[in-house]
Amino acid sequence: MNNIAVVSGTTGVGKSSLAHNLAAMQAIRGQRVRGIGLDRQCTLSLWNGIDLDPDDGALYVGDVLQRKRRIKTGEVDDRGKPVKRPVHFADVEWQTPIPRYTLIPEARELEYDMLKIAQMGGCAEVLKTEVRDASPVDTNWFDTPGGANPLSLAALAAADWIIVVVCPTPKGVQIGETLQWIEEMQEDGKTQAELVGIVPNIVPAVREGGAYQDVMDQLNAPAEEGGYADMLLPAIRKQHYEITAFAMSRPLAAAFPRAEITADYEDLLKDLDRRGVTK
Ligand SMILES: Nc1ncnc2c1ncn2[C@@H]1O[C@H](COP(=O)(O)OP(=O)(O)OP(=O)(O)O)[C@@H](O)[C@H]1O
Ligand SMILES: [Mg+2]
């Protein structure tokens, strides 16, 4: 079982898209995969057409992480009250529209949960245990919120592999800090995960301007020149197909199997296969 955390320093770089599309591609080719949504924006859940309201009693990943006792065991205590046990992954897992691809869904309440989770501590241990005890899959994909926060750190702790996503913007890429907190976690023994590399994502066509190209050149430069050439994974182009597929709640491989962006994801998946990350 491979556990992959998809992280980034800044938000909106296409982490959720990457996790979802690669998970779907693996499922389509016959592997069993699980998406684990950890973002209060619920992108991974919404991508899969799952929109939960905990006020209506829906269970979600936040219940698991906070070890909420919300499942009735069928027994009663001394005072006649129903005994409840903590919520586990198996209680909240959904089938997505793609066979072999399941999801641990998010809810907007994660926004408030975040603080409680930080105060409680131990969220990383809970996530590790849940992943270990859940029904076996080939790959668990953790879709994290951008930046260093309790949920991203828990995902890193529970992961075997880390993929960093960056997006070339005219302002450049803020990646040094991200690589630094990953390295610190590795040094402190808080994660055993290995950094697979950096995926340049939502990369504009060359004709869209020199500013983007400068950033790509900077990423492609060797380490001694301040670049990341030795860490780069295949890039994903910026294409409108992505937005359309998103609106249709369908992964690219199902919605636009012949689009260039789908081919980019296929190349990335092949590269990850070769490294033993998605095999
Ligand atoms: N290759 C691409 N080409 C064009 N648009 C893309 C591409 N990848 C992602 N997008 C779009 O960019 C937006 C941000 O993507 P996404 O939600 O995956 O980013 P994220 O890093 O998960 O964001 P957040 O940090 O907020 O969770 C979405 O509207 C998505 O459809
Ligand atoms: Mg996201």
> Separation of termini?
9 Å
Shape: globular
What topology, given as strand order, has the largest sheet? 5-6-2-7-1-8-9
The CATH C-level name is Alpha Beta
Low-confidence stretches: none
Main pleated-sheet profile: 7 strands, mixed
Ligand catalogue:
adenosine-5'-triphosphate, magnesium ion
Summary tags:
single chain; 279 residues; alpha/beta; Rossmann fold; seven-stranded mixed beta sheet; globular; binds adenosine-5'-triphosphate; binds magnesium ion
3D structure, described in words:
The chain has twelve helices and nine strands. The longest helix has 15 residues, at 260-274. The protein has one domain: P-loop containing nucleotide triphosphate hydrolases (Rossmann fold, 3-Layer(aba) Sandwich). It has a seven-stranded mixed sheet with strand order 5-6-2-7-1-8-9, with helices on both faces. Helices cover 39% and strands 17% of the residues. The radius of gyration is 19 Å and the shape is globular. The N and C termini lie close together (9 Å). Helix 6 (123-133) packs across helix 7 (150-158). The chain has 279 residues and is of the alpha/beta class. The structure holds adenosine-5'-triphosphate and magnesium ion.
